[in-house]
Write a structure and sequence with these properties.
It is a single chain. The protein is of the alpha+beta class. It is 36% helix and 17% strand. The strands form 6 sheets. A 4-stranded antiparallel beta sheet has the order 8-9-10-11, with no helix packed on it. A 3-stranded antiparallel beta sheet has the order 1-2-3, with no helix packed on it. A two-stranded antiparallel ribbon has the order 4-5. Strand 6 and strand 7 (134-136) form a beta hairpin. Helix 1 runs antiparallel to helix 2, helix 4 (141-173) packs antiparallel against helix 6 (185-214) and helix 5 (177-183) packs across helix 6.
Length: 391
């Protein structure tokens, strides 16, 4: 913007007088219009959501992967329940491999990649541009292209009319080229500056013009993903350009103005309506949820204890001893797990289970709860004499 301001202030108006009517006034007007447009598309490029895929709060269930109609039968989850690192999906009748993102806990959509700078999965990830401080993806690629192409046009425009200004000065005043540069040093500076910068932005514009015509991204082109084979996204130059520049921009999948309620008791922070995954040693619970009405709810595998705000009543739940096979299956038993990692509030304690009084203590508040007999698959007590406490 500084060279543009120098051109408008010290070159364009003098050049308009030398050219005269009717074309002269268009010189500064065009420079200011292109400069304003360049700044607007720069802000749209850097300020828009590039297409961030929202993260999951827990890994997807293998059963959901089995029911996914997009996945090929060869790529569905194995019967063991483990999530495969990659999946094969069909795009325009061609098979494309997608990866599982351990950070976002999701299978990336086709053409999606995880940006190491922004630490987000971005739809149709092109590259991370340090000059605009933003990822270039599906929702801001067209503005990025307009930014670099308008910058290239502005560089060439200033370069050409700076030369025109020097030539007209030499003709009108009879100066040599050096005398004309001494008469208008700003023109000489802008010629050198725009000559250098036009190679960078001009080369970038030419490269992205090729990518747009072939419907590729920078990430795909640098990785040679389609070397020796056809791209499933290339549908011809005309349709590629329509898809990239004229198709509707999808709405953002994120609400960046949403108020987030932070619960200090949560192990992982976030909105209270969401579920969070956490792990106690070898025992991983399915989810943990808090609300703001004073009630506490734990949902671990199958057992569930609901503590109401008024009466603190416990709900009898029937669970099978096989559900705790991952805890008691090893020879070391519970001692091995507790030696591995101790939670802040252990969910396992000693003693009987008939008519026992359990104390739940958290940040200075104590609640006494009478628990009825907890049935473990019809047995009188839990495996190995262990019992579950409501904490």
């Amino acid at each position: 913007m500084t060279p543009t301001a120098l051109f408008v202030a010290f070159v364009s108006f003098r050049l308009a007088e030398l050219i005269g009517e009717p074309l002269g006034p268009f010189v500064p007007t065009t420079a200011m219009a292109v400069g304003a447009f360049d700044l607007i598309v720069l802000l749209l490029t850097s300020g828009r959501d590039p297409g961030i895929i929202p993260r999951n709060t827990r890994p997807p269930d293998p059963e959901d992967i089995q029911l996914d109609s997009m996945a090929s039968p060869m790529a569905r989850a194995p019967s063991s329940g483990a999530l495969p690192p990659t999946r094969d999906v069909y795009v325009n009748g061609m098979m494309v491999k997608v990866k599982y993102c351990h950070t976002c806990m999701l299978y990336r959509p086709p053409r999606c990649s995880h940006c190491s700078v922004c630490n987000n999965c971005v739809d149709r990830f092109d590259h991370h541009c340090p000059w605009v401080g933003q990822c270039i993806g599906k929702r801001n690629y067209r503005f990025f292209f307009m930014f670099i192409s308008s910058t290239t046009f502005l560089c060439l425009y200033v370069f050409v009319f700076s030369w025109v200004n020097l030539i007209l000065i030499t003709r009108q005043y009879g100066y040599s080229l050096g005398g004309a540069i001494a008469e208008s040093p700003v023109s000489g500076f802008l010629i050198v500056y725009t000559f250098v910068t036009s190679w960078f932005v001009g080369g970038l514009t030419a490269f992205h013009s090729y990518l747009s015509c072939t419907n590729q991204t920078t990430y795909e082109n640098f990785r040679y993903r389609y070397e020796g084979k056809s791209s499933p996204y290339n549908r011809g130059v005309a349709r590629n350009l329509v898809e990239i520049f004229l198709s509707p921009i999808p709405a953002s999948k994120n609400d960046f103005r949403q108020k987030v309620v932070v619960d200090p008791n949560a192990l992982l922070y976030g909105p209270p309506s969401m579920a969070y995954s956490y792990s106690f040693g070898k025992f991983s619970s399915s989810k943990k949820s808090f609300n703001t009405q004073g009630s506490l709810s734990f949902d671990m595998a199958k057992p569930s204890f609901d503590l109401g705000a008024g009466g603190y009543t416990a709900k009898r739940t029937s669970i099978g001893s096989s559900d705790f096979g991952d805890i008691y299956g090893t020879g070391s038993g519970m001692e091995g797990m507790t030696a591995h990692q101790q939670p802040r509030h252990s969910i396992f304690g000693g003693g009987g289970v008939h008519g026992g009084k359990k104390v739940a203590e958290d940040t200075g508040s104590v609640a006494t709860t009478d628990l009825d007999t907890v049935e473990y698959g019809g047995a009188a007590g839990p495996p190995h004499g262990r019992e579950m406490e409501a904490v």
